[in-house]
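User: Predict the structure for this protein chain, please.
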Amino acid sequence: MFRYASLLSLALASTAFAQYSATYDPHNLPPTSEDGQSGTNQCGEGSDQNSMCQNAYLNSVDDFCLWGPPTPGPDSTIGNTERIEVAWCTRAGYGTRLIPDGTLLGVHFVQTSDYVQVTGVGDLTKINIPAGDEGGELDPHGADGNGNPIGGLVFSNAFGGELKQVHEWTNFVSSTEFCFRACDDNGSQPATYCQHIYDVMGCWWNMPGNYDAGFDRCLADSGEPMGVYGTSTFYQGQPTTPDPHPAPASSSCESVNSISNGQHAARAAIPVADPVITGISTAGTAGVGSVHKARAPAESSSPSRTESSGTTATSAPTGSNGAAPLRSGRMEAVVAGAAVALAAAILA
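Assistant: Here is the predicted structure, written as structure tokens:
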């Protein structure tokens, strides 16, 4: 998926910090929670497309947020803006920006005993991510312990029904794809299930699941944490990158027709050419030249859930970091097909 050659220096600078432990009442938040914060945690209610709110929520298939740049433009890549991202949400009421209708073409929400997770595809240029940006990873640690974005807080009501802060979370987002996992503080190994050290590996490796068009919610097994293989743990930068885990078995899946909040995109997307990376040494990068699966096989136990079939492993390009390319021909077809279907539905 994400190749992140352009973010290699950020990946090498990332280090593992102790679990973030400051706890905030979601109904009584301070103006800011970290020094150097560009936005605010005191966001009010409603919604505002110019909001600088840095609170994200991960509650359900139609009630979640993604981190995205505060301003559009070719320089607003995730790598350039990771410290200042703001929350873009599917639902009003948090004082955040709204993800415009038509942005999300696939959303798949799963709840396990240890975490909740949302994966999907869409036209994320509508939340200011430049076209062609292969994205990056956001988490509550960052290279200095202040988080990416600085002061970004995440809350969920998925663990017991009461809205509360989640201390361990990880979000990958690009111009076409996203994944967001929030781990239950009282679950099994929240810091391990929401590990943040694999920031060049992308969504499919860190959070195997459904990245097809369409909308659904499921219960699921927790599976193995990213990077953990029995009694062994893989560390980014080792010579050989292991395959991603298969998507954990899911059940009790329910389809959702669409996700809409009435918000239209404020401006047309600003296209930029795909980045051409030159002069980057591959010495010491994770999984150089290794064979890496673009998508782990799903292990769904639900007859109501349709999983893709016939997906084959792809080799990482020589000199890459071993993560599968973001925009395979199949992914482009999924996004394009979903966009056509959405346009047809609007015109009908």
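Helices lie at 8-13, 78-81, 190-193, 202-206, 329-347.
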